[in-house]
Amino acid sequence: MHEMSLTEGVIRILEDQAATHDFTRVKTVWLEIGELSSVDPESMLFCFDAVARGSAVAAGAKLEIVRVAGRAFCLDCAEAVALGHRGDPCPRCGGWSLQVTAGEEMRVKELEVE
């Protein structure tokens, strides 16, 4: 499960930000996860609770998942389209020349701290 190591990375980011911005505790983390990122949001929630327990900054914090829809630009029909899964054809023209424009990301969007 690669979500465990991803969650450990998120906790390191929180600890680094606490040291940089002088806060002592994270109350809520908003984490953007793209539909095309190959990250399972439910696994991230499970792992976050387990990993955050070992962090002075993140213990007891709440993780809120913000899902980012997959989007792509079709080079065949020159249209921006929704993309549900990597490897799907263009839903407008059926072409395969798609350039992903959104939905691959995983990033800390916002923090509530004290």
- By secondary-structure content and strand pairing, the structural class works out as alpha+beta
Helix tally equals: 2
- Counting copies of identical and different chains, the oligomeric state is single chain
Q: What general outline do the C-alpha atoms trace? A: elongated
Strand content: 25-35%
- Percent helix, as a range, is 25-40%
User: Taking all residues together, what is the mean pLDDT?
Assistant: 96
C-alpha termini separation: 31 Å
Major sheet characteristics: 3 strands, mixed
Secondary structure: number of strands: 6
Helices and strands, in order, run as: HEHEEEEE
How is the largest sheet built, in terms of strand order?
Answer: 2-1-6
Radius of gyration: 17 Å
**Poorly predicted regions:** none
Describe the model.
There is one protein chain. The protein has two helices and six strands; from the N terminus they run αβαβββββ. It has helices at 3-21, 41-52; strands spanning 26-34, 62-68, 71-74, 79-82, 98-102, 106-113. Helix 1 (3-21) packs across helix 2. With 114 residues, the chain is an alpha+beta fold. Strands 2-1-6 form a three-stranded mixed β-sheet, covered by helices on one side.
Short overview:
The protein has 114 residues and is α+β, with helices and mostly antiparallel strands.
Blueprint of the fold:
Blueprint: H1 3-21, E1 26-34, H2 41-52, E2 62-68, E3 71-74, E4 79-82, E5 98-102, E6 106-113
Parallel strand pairs: 1-2
Antiparallel strand pairs: 1-6, 3-4, 3-5
Helix pairs in contact: 1-2
Tags for this model:
three-stranded mixed β-sheet, 6 strands, alpha+beta, 114 residues, three-stranded antiparallel β-sheet
